[in-house]
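Side project, low priority. Logging it here so it doesn't get lost.
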Amino acid sequence: MKALAVRRGGLLHALVALLPAWFAWAGSVAVIGWLVFVATKSPAVVGVAFSVRMAPLVLAGLPIGTLSDRLGRILVLKVANLGIAAIFGSLAVLAITGHLAVAPLIVAAAVLGLFDAGRMVCGNNLVFELSGELGPTRAIAASNFGGAIGQIVGSAAAGAALSSAGPATACALVAAASLVSATLLFGLPEPAISTHQAGTSFTAAVRAGLALLHRVPAVGLLIAAACVVEMFAFSCMALDPTFAGQVFMAGPSGLGWILASRALGRLVGASALVLFPARRTVGRALVLAVIGFGLALFIYALAPALLLALPFIFIVGITGLVIDALVLTAVQAGVHPTVRGRAAGLWVLMIGLQPIGVLEVGVVAQLAGARWAQGINASIVFMFGMALLFTAFGRRISDMETVSAQPG
């Protein structure tokens, strides 16, 4: 009973500590995206800024997952949050001195990608391992609930700061939130780390993580399906500054509303997963979420005004949350506890492939407009979801476990 109480308290402590990091992430997306757009007026360059932030995830996901398995989740999380704080503190200084330009923003985005990998891998490992009686899916959904709150506040605060106080204040807000997250992690007990592979070299451990794709069928199938959604649906986030600035003519506050609406959808989606009874398998929820994601994204692309687009951006948030939570839970449930960091690292690696979609959607937007670019990608996602609904591939995904299928 005492151990259960400690674990429950540990989960709450972790969720509180992760909340400011979500604020910082949403603020960082808004700040860098908007400042690059204002400086260049180019969707393609904004796409480059998003891409260079995502690209390091491909290289860093598995190595950081391996470090997480060996050194612990909390240490890597602290370093990641302190690194993000240092980057945005530096950007704030550049803004104050008048030296903040596109080049340092692009460089900052690339370095942020490395720290994002640590935050994503270790944050999800920590929540999974501290889930206790709540269950992994509901614990990760609860984490995303807190994340959605952080994103709503962070997006709105960044948009307001950019509009009224300027880039220096907006960068300082992001830095402060990351520093608070790192501070809150102190005192959180580290989940026990197995020494089962202590004698294995680091390189061999990374290779073993990559081998999970074919050695554990559930991991390979889920990563493949999620990759399609990342490349053609989540990549459309790179167009948000363009929709706010050129399509809807709503300025930085409009960008804040777009990001906040998506975050509010994630809040509602997380609430539903937490409140609904836990299920042992993924079920049809993942497939239906893919279909809904594509459809809502398509209608958002066609909306004549921001006010009419917001309800569908909200739905995009709901479906995106469901996809993230179910994939993350099932991927970690399908492997032995000693390699959970590397399993989450594969998910991060897959997200790192998103720049392919970001560059594609940015180039199409440059040539044909943001509406066409997003509409094409949304159609691909919708058709992929429909294919999953009626094929054996989709049925195999529906049967995958969301609780630990491997011995713990």
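Brief comment: The CA atoms of residues 43 and 242 lie 6 Å apart.
Revisit when time allows.
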